[in-house]
């Protein structure tokens, strides 16, 4: 995804989000902002052409603040793309710092959680303090005494003059974060797409969730993610976030969405966009756009034999 303009991201410089923003829009002017809501609002108000925010980590799961901004925020913004960034967490501190001198470790909450086991084993007495981003934690550590360390990137260490005391300290291998690219409109179909929606049930009925899932299964649509979130309206009331293979312009996806819409109080489409791996899932012959078009032609001809004027 290229083009001029501004791309807002969760800053400051030196975060994984800044790398994701450069991959998503290498020709755009980067604009670091302090919070996820700030990034979302910058795109919604037209102050930035694109926005890049984290939505999911392979260790800690979904970034709830991003999900809530998209699911419950004002309309006028969509997911237009996604970028996956491998995550390598490092323990950063001022030059000359030793592990036994560290009394506090600061970073973004997801980063702290991704290194929970390592911190417990190696710095059991250190306080864990939240920061708005890994780069912000590095900046604070650079200005603090040698009792403070940060979890962050090698780039942040270089930027703020810190040493890497321990590298790759995340608890599990294969650590990666998925970032979404936000824009005022959705991407055209590419053949390797996914669609994200949020379903608000309204009046709860037995079997309603199964009926919603069946609308996708009956059309051969793979659901790649299913997650519930509180609606924030009443205790025990939830909405469902779904990611499905395919673009909303495809006949099978369009028919599934129309059918789900009939059953629920609200169906909100968060976006249709290219998959980060650009790997498509070709539908079975019976679920192809051609098959839907042939069925529509057949049915239209069949209606031609109905005498609508008769009683």
Description:
By secondary structure, the chain is of the alpha/beta class. The chain folds into 3 domains: 1-86 and 173-185, D-Maltodextrin-Binding Protein, domain 2, CATH 3.40.190; 90-166, D-Maltodextrin-Binding Protein, domain 2; 186-296, 2-Layer Sandwich (Alpha-Beta Plaits), CATH 3.30.70.260. It is 31% helix and 29% strand. The chain has helices at 16-24, 36-44, 64-72, 109-114, 116-122, 134-143, 154-160, 208-217, 251-263, 289-303, and strands spanning 6-10, 29-33, 50-57, 61-62, 78-86, 90-93, 104-107, 127-130, 148-152, 163-166, 176-183, 193-200, 223-230, 238-245, 266-274. Strands 1, 2, 3, 4, 5 and 11 form a 6-stranded mixed sheet that branches. A hairpin with a 7-residue loop joins β13 (223-230) and β14. α8 (208-217) runs antiparallel to α9 (251-263). The mean pLDDT is 92.
Quick description:
With 311 residues, this protein is α/β, with parallel strands linked by helices. The protein is 31% helix and 29% strand. Strands 1, 2, 3, 4, 5 and 11 form a six-stranded mixed beta sheet that branches.
